[in-house]
Design a protein that fits this description.
This protein has 977 residues and is α+β, with helices and mostly antiparallel strands. It contains six helices and 70 strands. The strands form 17 sheets. A five-stranded antiparallel beta sheet has the order 1-30-57-56-55, with no helix packed on it. A five-stranded mixed beta sheet has the order 66-67-68-70-69, with helices on one face. A four-stranded antiparallel beta sheet has the order 2-29-28-27, with no helix packed on it.
Length: 977
């Protein structure tokens, strides 16, 4: 490393070689999403986001997109003076007004102090002890307990300093503060104050120097930019002393700078009115200005992120990021020397340049640079190649270059002419020149070997055994070697593969692991593994895997087995990481047409491009560690509403807010274009990862209710970090009719309804069964009654008839008269016929109406009383109701009336009977006679007539009333219908 540093130092000090050097920057402007092109400063939080303050608002960059805040998004003013992180995803934002803001998980809100007092703070500063101070126009304040507490700045004489304070750094347990350079305050404009928070002492540097900016180095030393240059600030018992910076920064003593920065490698960066200057720990000074690639405009701050990328803010052209500190662009190798071709060898530190216009050669070594001239006429478009011999190939001729010892002259002797010698060249292990064109040529040792090709061969390669590999535009691959037979000048074909996978090949190289790399016109880069001339496996790299372009015009394998691919759009480096090729873009954001790539022994790569060449040391600074940066959910948009991005508190959405968008990013800025994103939504019907793309916006619409987890994977094509995963959980709540509570309630209700239906069905069924049973019981009862009636009424009559018949038989034997018995049989037969008619009437359902009962009862009463020679008067409604009644109802009412009439005829000695019938809510029958009446005590003990009447009416739920006196008896029957 010391030797390498010495070489680099020498190269920087060689003015002729460093002529026209420039740097490659990636620029970020409003076209890329930056809120305003007039940038002020940059801050990075612990998760890697960059916070860029501009004159038009605040931009937050996550490596994928800018999230912007201005007065429309909640800032009290678009000018932000400082940003301070309080914790992960929680930052204080200090606007240039009397206010204070807080950004928590991407949501901006106001901070309310206890007393509603806000100074106009220019800087928030955290000391080594964790105290927070505000450097403000109003003076110095300590911020604690949601309150600004004024700190009195008074010197030993009691005179107060300030109040217009503009900048500060915390170092050596003190506050180093600058006053505003445009506003008068004690001890003056642009003065330096040193305040000790412990002792409350204040020191002032007086007015000898106008202080512009402050910074501290990694060791805690404070450096100040003054109008006279950069000074080291020392604080002693006798006050403040300004000293010339120690080596290696002594060169900064004469530089007037607007801002200062020490990076982690120990380099001091200064911004001036014209350019940006870096002074490294070895004392080397590099200036970057408009001629060196920096965009026009005043650079006002330099920032180093945690990946050691250097960012520069610009008052006119946004923010610029230095692509690589080890990458330099040169438009010329020396004054008056345009390098159109370069030759370098990994066995030597010497680098040769060729100016095809002036026909000059330039040799650069670690100690000198020397030009060589020729008087020979040479055609244009020449290419040089230096090894054991020096060669110059031009269209139509190949020259061997010879140098005149002790002079600066060279001559070019043609060794081959012809139209088929214009092509790419390389040198084999014997130092012979190999050219591929429409012929494949090997030149050396005084001989020329050649072999024709049906199509143009663009780039040859030589393997470790000296064999020559070439591809033709006819999609074929060949392996050849010179035939060493004396007098034979042909190349012997060892193997050939017509119709290879790589279509339209344009470039070729072989690595140290036996891989064949074939670049194509528009199909990307192929890596083929061959064993004993058998192609075994292959891989394909395209723009999707990180290539700048799918047109690979030049390939080069360096001694570290890294493949360098040159395209019309830039330069790519392919490294093997975990048995996988990873692509790093060396020139992101720059359209550089690559012509040729070489490497010298010190590890420097030399790349010929249109309009100049690149000198590449280290492609990028190593990050602090190889842990991948976190995947950040920078914005979550539900419909048109932004929600907090805290993964620890997942968002819960209603069913009608099921359109959600995620903006994710990975804060790696080495080359953001080499980051690919894929995602998987766990909980959805679509399983599996999406294809990896540059697209970092993820949108979902019409998501059904459920619990989801969005998994996002970031892949770094350059291989600088391993793949990283991030997740965000969210819930879409179902509608109320699909909620668990509703479903439980619905289930309970359904179970209740089912239970009620089952209960109702069961009750109805039981009721039906009960009715059936009751009907059966009624039928049985009716059958029993009929049997009883038949037994009682008919059986008794039949028994009497049988008895009379037997009596007749006996009397006939005795020759006695039998007329009485015959009359008895006739009477009993008639009675039995009447009772049979009653039984049949009672059983007939056609008579189950109230009108039929009343008609039948009235008819019976009239006929029965007439036979007994009793005057009968019957009152009944003219229109009898058609109300349906049961057979039991008809029978009990009829028999009760019949029993009452029988008692009248048999016992009352009445001459007249009045029968009244009425129907309202109940059936009422009144029987009134004019007989002798009776008393219940006079009734025979075993008489059942009245008891049967009462029993029958009671069975119907009715009422039987009997009133008897000297004027007759009244029987009232009332039965509900």
């Amino acid at each position: 490393m010391k030797i390498f540093g010495a070489i680099v130092s020498c190269l920087f000090l060689l003015a002729p070689v460093c002529h026209g050097q420039g740097f490659l920057f990636v620029r970020y402007t409003p076209k890329d999403g930056l809120i305003n092109g007039r940038a002020r400063f940059i801050v990075q939080d612990s998760r890697g986001r960059l916070y860029i303050s501009t004159f038009g608002g605040l931009s937050v960059y996550d490596g994928s997109r800018f999230t912007n805040y201005n007065t429309e998004n909640g800032l009290s003013t678009s000018l932000v003076n400082d940003i301070l992180e309080l914790g992960p995803d929680s930052l204080l934002v200090v606007p240039n007004t009397r206010a204070l803001h807080l950004i928590v998980h991407g949501i901006l809100r106001d901070v309310r102090t206890v007393d509603r007092f806000y100074p106009i703070a220019n800087r928030l500063l955290r000391t080594e002890t964790g105290e927070l101070y505000a450097i403000a126009d109003d003076g110095l304040f300590r911020f604690q307990g949601q309150r600004y507490e004024k700190v009195r700045l008074a010197d030993a004489g009691g005179k107060e300093a300030g109040p217009f304070l503009i900048q500060a750094v915390a170092a050596q347990h003190k506050l180093f503060i600058l006053t505003d350079p445009y506003l008068a305050s004690y001890p003056g404009m642009a003065s330096l104050l040193v305040y000790d928070p412990v002792t409350k002492q204040l020191l002032t540097a007086g007015k000898p120097d106008q202080f512009v900016a402050l910074t501290r180095d990694p060791a805690g030393n404070v450096f100040a930019a003054t109008e006279k240059g950069v000074r080291l600030v020392e604080v002693g018992e006798d006050g403040i002393r300004l000293k010339t910076p120690p080596p290696p920064y002594a060169a900064a003593a004469g530089i007037q700078s607007g801002s200062l920065l020490f990076d982690r490698s120990g380099s001091l960066w200064l911004t001036t009115a014209r350019d940006v200057i870096e002074i490294d720990p070895a004392g080397n000074r590099v200036s970057i200005g408009p001629r060196g690639g920096f965009p026009a405009g005043l650079a006002n701050s330099v920032f180093e992120d945690r990946e050691r990328n250097i960012w520069i803010t610009n008052t006119e052209n946004g923010v610029s990021r230095l692509v690589s500190r080890g990458l330099r662009f040169y438009d010329s190798a020396a004054p008056g020397f345009a390098a159109t071709d370069i030759s370098a060898d990994n066995t030597s530190d010497s680098v040769w340049y060729y100016d095809q216009v002036r026909h000059q050669l330039l040799l650069q070594t670690p100690g000198e640079a020397k030009r060589f001239y020729t008087d020979d006429p040479l055609p244009p478009n020449g290419h040089i190649l230096f090894g054991k011999s020096a060669w110059l190939s031009t269209p139509g001729a190949v020259y061997q270059v010879k140098f005149t010892p002790g002079t600066d002259r060279f001559n070019a002797r043609p060794v081959l002419t012809g139209p088929a010698v214009d092509g790419r060249t390389c040198i084999d292990r014997q130092g012979r020149l190999v050219i591929s064109s429409t012929r494949i040529l090997v030149i050396g040792e005084g001989r020329v070997w050649q072999r024709g090709s049906p199509e143009l061969c663009d780039q040859p390669a030589v393997d470790n055994q000296g064999r020559i590999w070439a591809t033709s535009r006819a999609d074929s691959l060949m392996v050849l070697e010179p035939d060493m037979t004396p007098g034979v000048d042909t190349l012997r074909l060892i193997a050939a593969w017509p119709g290879i996978l790589a279509k339209s090949p344009r470039s070729l190289c072989l690595d140290n692991a036996g891989h064949i790399w074939i670049g194509t016109r528009d199909h990307g880069l192929y890596c083929v593994k061959a064993d004993s001339f058998r192609l075994q496996s292959w891989r394909k790299l395209t723009i999707n895997e990180g290539l700048s372009e799918d047109f690979i015009r030049y390939l080069f394998c360096d001694p570290d087995n890294n493949i360098w691919a040159g395209t019309p759009s830039g330069l790519d480096e392919i490294r093997w990481i975990n048995d996988s090729p990873r692509v790093a873009n060396i020139t992101p954001g720059h359209q550089l047409a690559i012509q040729k790539i070489r490497r010298s022994a010190d590890g420097t790569h030399w790349v010929v491009v249109d309009g100049g060449f690149l000198r590449i040391g280290r492609t990028h600074a190593d990050p602090e560690d190889h842990r991948p940066p976190d995947i950040l959910f920078s914005q979550i948009l539900v419909g048109n509403t932004f929600v907090a991005t805290d993964p620890g508190h997942p968002v819960s959405l209603s069913y009608d807010r099921n359109a959600i968008s995620f903006n994710v990013g990975v804060p790696s800025f080495i080359d953001e274009s080499q980051t690919r994103y894929s995602y998987m939504l766990e909980g959805s019907s679509e399983a599996g990862w999406s294809p990896a793309t540059r697209q970092s916006a993820i949108n979902f619409v019409n998501l059904p209710p459920g619990k989801y987890t969005l998994w996002v994977k970031a892949r770094f094509l350059s291989g600088i970090y391993p793949d990283t995963l991030g997740s965000y959980a969210f819930v879409i709540r179902p509608p109320w009719w699909q909620t668990t509570v509703f479903r439980i309630a619905a289930l309970v209700s359904l179970l209740f309804v089912i239970g009620w239906a089952i209960r109702t069905y069961t009750r109805n069924r039981l009721k039906a069964q009960l009715l059936t049973l009751e009907r059966q019981r009624a039928i049985e009862k009716e059958r029993t009654r009929i049997a009883t009636d038949m037994h009682d009424d008919l059986g008794a009559g039949l028994s009497r008839i049988k008895f009379l018949s037997d009596t007749i038989g006996i009397k006939q034997q005795r020759r006695l008269p039998i007329d009485e018995e015959i009359d008895g049989i006739r009477e009993y037969s008639k009675e039995m016929i009447d009772k049979m008619g009653e039984i049949v009437w009672a059983l007939n359902q056609k008579h189950d109406v109230l009108s039929d009962l009343l008609s039948y009862t009235r008819s019976y009463a009239a006929g029965y009383l007439m036979q007994a020679a009793i005057d009968a008067r019957i009152d009944a409604p003219e229109e009898l109701p058609q109300t349906v009644v049961s057979g039991e109802f008809r029978r009990n009412v009829y028999l009760a009336v019949k029993e009452a009439l029988h008692n009248v005829v048999k016992h009352s000695q009445a001459q007249q009977v009045v029968m009244r019938m009425s129907v309202q809510s109940a059936l009422t029958i009144v029987l009134q006679d004019n007989g002798v009446g009776f008393t219940r005590s006079a009734i025979r003990p075993y008489a059942n007539g009245l008891l049967n009447m009462e029993r029958r009416i009671a069975e119907l739920g009715g009422r039987l009333e009997i009133r008897s006196g000297e004027s007759g008896t009244t029987v009232t029957i009332e039965v509900p219908i």
